[in-house]
Specification:
Layout (H helix, E strand, L loop, with lengths): L4 H23 L2 E2 L8 H9 L2 H25 L5 E10 L4 E9 L4 E7 L1 H7 L14 H17 L3 E8 L5 E7 L2 H20 L9 H4 L5 H10 L11 H31 L5 E5 L2 E5 L13 H11 L12
Parallel strand pairs: 1-3, 4-5
Antiparallel strand pairs: 2-3, 3-4, 5-6, 7-8
Length: about 325
């Protein structure tokens, strides 16, 4: 039999169809790989998003998954493996995941691939893996995923294997069962399940560093949060509080000064340059005229030049009210 391009493509299409069926089946559960995300709305939307959106999301992460499967094949040659790519689920909590490797000791080994920069960063946590919970979102999700597997398997210890996609470096982090984190996982799953059952969209977190990378933010949350500012409670030194109080007093005085200055100068525009005595007190009034060049262009030409040569620059303006 001679293979053709169409034959190969048909087989790939069938394989993708099977993969997507598995994805859609798991997508209606709380995903072990995402349960560490701090936003309940995000977790809810992952479960309720339309099938075509789930397919798009799956394709975004498919390349990374291919890479991890290659590592699985390498590791099973040297480790005592009971199973690999094994689905695991808790129906009561509606949590599901796929164990990259289940060791013969019944311990999970989760495989992650990342950039060189992320790989360098995660090595800081080798001796203190609990601090992954306070790290950035990616590492936080790694930690929660392994903790979820420890809970589902009812074991005390598992492993996180991380490989640098760019330079091939690898590291293994040993993760011990963390009961407060597991309690958090259970509570979060229960809350998401309740929202899904009642079809209630949970509150979003409105955190710029997380929302800016969210798949759903632009279409669902951006308009809601655009003019909504978080109220934050902060602890400040007494010295800084005194400066703030002084600032608000001077700010009000400055407003009154500017208003008064405008009224006075409007009147003085009618005066000549010179020295004036008011109630036996001399006032020097300097009245000067000056020219300033300006370029007057038709509006359509301004727009054309702006399109050709205009640039956008980002600035920060701080206002205290």
């Amino acid at each position: 039999m001679i293979l053709t391009k169409d034959f190969i493509q048909d087989k790939l299409n069938l394989l993708e169809k099977k993969e997507l069926e598995d994805v859609l089946l798991q997508a209606r559960r709380n995903r072990a790989s995402e349960i560490g995300h701090p936003c309940l709305r995000y977790l809810y939307l992952l479960r309720t998003m339309p099938a075509d959106e789930m397919v798009k999301l799956h394709r975004l992460f498919r390349v990374g998954k291919f890479f991890e499967e290659i590592i699985v094949k390498r590791l099973i040659q040297v480790l005592p493996v009971q199973a690999f790519q094994r689905p695991i689920e808790n129906k009561e909590l509606q949590i599901a995941g796929v164990l990259d490797i289940l060791l013969e000791t019944n311990q999970p080994l989760e495989i992650k691939s990342c950039s060189y920069e992320k790989f360098q960063e995660i090595q800081k946590y080798i001796d203190q893996p609990k601090y992954l919970k306070q790290a950035d979102l990616l590492f936080r999700k790694y930690y929660f995923q392994v903790q979820t597997y420890l809970m589902l398997l009812n074991v005390e210890q598992g492993f996180l294997y991380v490989i640098d996609r760019q330079r091939g470096g690898e590291t293994i982090i040993e993760i011990t069962r963390d009961e407060p984190t597991i309690k958090e996982i259970v509570e979060k799953a229960e809350r998401v399940n309740e929202c899904v059952e009642k079809e209630v969209l949970p509150e979003g977190i409105n955190q710029k560093n997380i929302c800016s990378h969210c798949y759903f933010y632009k279409n669902i949350c951006s308009k809601e949060f655009q003019n909504k500012k978080k109220v934050q409670v902060v602890n400040l030194s007494e010295d800084f509080i005194e400066k703030l109080d002084k600032y608000f007093v001077l700010q009000q005085q400055l407003k009154e000064l500017k208003k008064l200055e405008t009224e006075i100068k409007t009147k003085l525009h009618e005066w000549e340059d010179g020295i004036y005595t008011v109630k036996n007190r001399p006032y020097v009034i300097n009245v000067t005229e000056y020219e300033r060049s300006c370029l007057e262009l038709p509006e359509d030409l301004k727009q054309e030049l702006m399109q050709q040569y205009g640039v956008k620059k980002l600035y920060k303006r701080i206002e205290i009210k």
